[in-house]
Amino acid sequence: MTLLSLNIDWILLIEKLVLIAIVVFASLGIALYTTFGERKVAAILQDRPGPNRAGPFGLLQPLADGVKMFTKEDIIPNSANKWLFILGPGLAMTASLMSCAVIPWGGTIELFDRTISLQIADINIGILYIFAVVSLGVYGIMIGGWASNNKFSLMAALRGASQAISYELAMGLSLIAVLMLSGSLSLGDIVKQQQAGWWNIVYQPLGFLIFFICALAECNRTPFDLPEAENELNFGYHQEYSSMKLGFYLFAEYINMIMSSAVMASLYFGGYDIPFVNDAELQTHLGNWVALFQVGTLLIKIVFFIFLFMWIRWTIPRFRYDQLMNLGWKTMIPLALVNMLITGALVLLKMNNWHF
Amino acid sequence: MEALTSRAKAVDRKPMTFLERLYLWNILKGMIITFSHIFKKKPTIQYPEVKRPFSPVFRGLHVLNRDEEGRERCTACGLCAVACPAEAITMEAAERLPGEENLYREEKYAAKYEINMLRCIFCGLCEEACPKDAIYLSETFAPANFNRKGFVYGKDNLLIPNPTTQPEATAKAKGLN
């Protein structure tokens, strides 16, 4: 009886499902074209024209790459743990897609007498959720490396896991400073506060720098792409993978890039806030169009960060492993701690009306 | 010792300072350099659409020439085969029969004339050796092929189109239009 009399808001459910479908497919599509953008940016930075044969300006190149990936022979090594071997890339992909749930993609729109928030789930521990999901991504790496039953894959997986864990520490410490400023763990609240006042980058330049560097390490991007060092470390945890399983691993990296760009934009650059404009005032004039502009603004910010990621990748070589660990433990964590302490002291001073 | 270039720099083995150990400044300098490359001219030539002009002395695929009346000039003397350092040329001679004067200029002609393009080094000695001006090196090179057999070019591949019956094809083969 209680089950039947449960008051389920079916419209809310449908609304969220549609939102999830849009966000997931949009991030997949953007990731697809990020691979194309990566190759184009790499080419342009190296004085080459880049892929330009498939379709106008080479725009169909990602589709051609996808078809190539799907039609390749899918090899599962004899000694591999078959189920874990398949689970690995799936987990990597799922984990990277899951983090899009708490990112506020835009303000609210009014549709059919309902106010629809362009955020799938505004949970009050949004940032903790993102951290949990990002840590789950390490399982994709670990399981893939372990299930391959190949010592080089396993070593690469260990390398990847230890790197992710070391840099997550500094990332968390740099985040705490932001949380002290905002007093909330919900991404939606943090963005709304930045809409009202200044962007967090003004208060937290050092924190942003640390967060950005750690995001590079978390996404396994150059200069921290040791888990997939092809030439000097015998590839990485996906050495035994082929076909679309390998494609999933590579694809998960690009989705991670998009998601970390979105998180950075939300935490430090005002999220969907349109700069130099009072969004709330605009909403009264333009209505739902404002939400569209807000989504566009967030996308522009994301694209900028992705370009920054690529720009860095095609500029510098990767670190040696000891350099990586030294940078993580001896530079990033102390800096993040200092940043946290200074922010804490200033927040306390402000609460005390600038009296000691 | 005098430096060989003006850019020579002594190796600095001082331990890195804290700022250097952050790598940020040097990475930023590198990023400015790569960013400046966005605006540089791309030297790429879009090959099948745009072709780089050959030098006038380029030595490419061979052409067996005809005279103005469309008769084959080659008399199968074998001097090209002798001159060839890579031994890429083989030929079989045959005697011109009555009634074939419009096909072959000399009384003896090459019934079979083969050049193995995998052996050929495109030195042009055959061109120099030929007393009849029959063999020339053109400005194209051998296209890719899946088997070795495809690189043995016979008379059907080498002979230039007949200028009396196919003037357009001849002009094209000579690169006139």
Walk me through the structure.
The complex is a heterodimer of chains A (356) and B (177). Chain A is mainly α and 356 residues long. Chain A has one domain. Helix content of chain A is 67%, strand content 2%. Chain A contains 13 helices and two strands. A two-stranded antiparallel sheet of chain A has the order 1-2. In chain A, helix 6 packs antiparallel against helix 9 and helix 9 runs antiparallel to helix 13. Chain B is of the alpha+beta class and 177 residues long. In chain B, the strands form two sheets. A three-stranded antiparallel beta sheet of chain B has the order 2-3-5. The mean pLDDT of chain B is 86. The chains are: A mainly alpha (356), B alpha+beta (177). At the A-B interface, helix 13 of A face helix 2 of B.
Q: Can you identify the CATH class of the domain at 62-173 in chain B?
A: Alpha Beta
Radius of gyration of chain B, whole Å: 28 Å
Largest interface: A-B, 16 and 18 residues
SSE order of chain A, as H and E? HHHHEEHHHHHHHHH
Distance between the termini of chain B: 60 Å
Summarize the structure.
Chain A has helices spanning 2-5, 10-45, 61-71, 82-98, 126-147, 151-182, 187-196, 200-203, 205-218, 243-268, 279-286, 289-313, 321-351; strands at residues 108-111, 114-117. Chain A is mostly helical.
